[in-house]
Specification:
Number of domains: 2
Largest sheet: 5 strands, antiparallel
Shape: globular
Number of helices: 4
CATH architecture of the largest domain: 2-Layer Sandwich
CATH class of the largest domain: Alpha Beta
Helix content: 25-40%
Radius of gyration: 24 Å
Structural class: alpha+beta
């Protein structure tokens, strides 16, 4: 079996929420502000993004907008050679972690691979400094909808634990509400305020 290329994960902690880091880093126009390998400018030519890099004009293809913090992109050199760059942002407490996976090309020396890793680390540090200086804009309407959808199953479960079936006594419902709040960090509705169906369509799951 052919040997897999060596890889190295380069990461940095950023004191900004993951959705804000993603929003900034996913904008192609922001790339030259922190990715030194892509030169000082980027433009859209037809349906393609073109960056003026040290090796000339390169094509950059970005991952489709997503809710998972995936910022992967491909860089195609003027020679036609293409490099895949996996880049992710994940929540880390009140901030986030940006992670770049660097693959070692065949026949690349140890020294050159180490230099590439240092360049990536420098770019991520630049991104960190940029983001930690920019005032927070808060979440967009679409991001709030996404967050609400993600929290709905937990709220639905807490509600079911609290309300139970029609035969559940008020005392049992109260005990379930306490357990739900302890486990999920949310107070579930109880008593007369129990919803008939926490989710549209008649299901709490």
């Amino acid at each position: 079996m052919r040997q897999l290329p060596e890889s190295r994960h380069v990461s940095i902690s950023i004191r900004r929420p993951a959705h804000e880091v993603y929003r900034f880093a996913s904008e192609p126009e922001n790339l030259p502000r922190w990715a030194s390998g892509l030169g000082g400018s980027i433009r859209k030519d037809g349906g393609e993004w073109i960056a003026d890099g040290p090796m000339g004009a390169v094509k950059v293809r970005f991952a489709e907008p997503n809710e998972l913090g995936i910022l992967d992109h491909e860089v195609e050199l003027p020679t036609g050679e293409t490099f895949y760059n996996p880049l992710r942002v994940v929540p880390n407490g009140a901030g986030s972690e940006m992670i770049f996976t660097l693959f070692r090309p065949p026949d690349e020396s140890d020294e050159k691979f180490a230099q590439d890793a240092e360049l990536v680390a420098t770019d991520l540090q630049t991104l960190k400094e940029l983001l930690e200086r920019i005032p927070s804009r808060g979440k967009s309407a679409s991001e709030k909808v996404i967050e609400d959808r993600r929290s709905t199953p937990v709220i639905g479960l807490a509600a079911r634990l609290a309300c139970g079936s029609a035969a559940t006594s008020p005392e049992a419902g109260a005990r379930r509400a306490v357990r739900a709040e302890t486990r999920y960090g949310r107070r579930a509705p109880s008593g007369p305020s129990c919803p008939a169906s926490p989710l549209p369509g008649g299901s709490a799951w």
